[in-house]
Amino acid sequence: HTTGYSRDAFKLWIDVDKNGCNTRAEVLIQEAIVKPQVRAGCKLVDGKWKSPYDNKIYTNPSLLDIDHVVPLNEAWRSGAWNWSQSQRMDYANDLAEPAVLVAVTASVNRSKGDKDIAHWLPEKGKCGYLKSWISIKTKYSLTVDTQEAQAIKELSSSCKVSAPTFVNV
Fold first, then answer.
1. According to the 3-state scheme, what is the secondary structure of 78-131?
2. CA distance linking residue 73 with residue 77, whole number of Å
3. pLDDT on residue 118
4. What is the pLDDT of residues 32-48, one digit of tens each?
């Protein structure tokens, strides 16, 4: 489904648990290798993060983006177009499944854009990225196209991961 996508269809960065920190901040807190202090207004200070896509270390959270491993537009094309607004909001802010949202180097995330696994892989951690991709596509019953299925099959082989049953290429 390639038409009708709008980022606005996915309500981003909500405060799910009403603790004053939105989804972006919650991911940063969860993924910190040195836990930040959480100050008034959920300002994060004195933390440290490692971007899994390039292994760079950061102490300034504003230099990180929160990546939707399966990008919102890819999710849309793969089935989210048929979800309710609530389901899209839940996907966009999923803190329960650690694979969905990842704190990464902003420039790397922006170079990825809305590309699927057939058209983009991180410099580092390709096998972990593959596992996350498969987990998310499975959890959310998202479809895969032929190129994506082929890429998953090939990467599964090199990563020594069982290709999911939805990959019939």
1. CCHHHCCHHHHHHHHCCCCCCCCEEEEEHHHHHHHCCCCCCCCCCCCCHHHHHH
2. 6
3. 97
4. 999 999 999 999 999 99
pLDDT band at 163 (very low <50, low <70, confident <90, very high): confident
Q: Specify the 3-state DSSP secondary structure of 58.
A: strand
Location of structure tokens 């990225």: 129
Residue 166 amino acid letter: F
- Per DSSP, the three-state class of 53 is coil
For the record, the structure tokens of 138 come out as: 């499975």
pLDDT at 166: 65
Beta-sheet pairing, 43-45 with 64-68? unpaired
**What's the token pair of residue 128?**
């972990």
Q: Whole-structure pTM over 0.90, yes or no?
A: yes
CB crowding 85-99: b at 16 or more within 10 Å, else e:
eeebbbbbbbeeeeb
Beta bridge partners of 37: 45
CB atoms within 10 A of CB 20: 11
Pairwise CA distance, residues 90 & 38, whole Å: 24
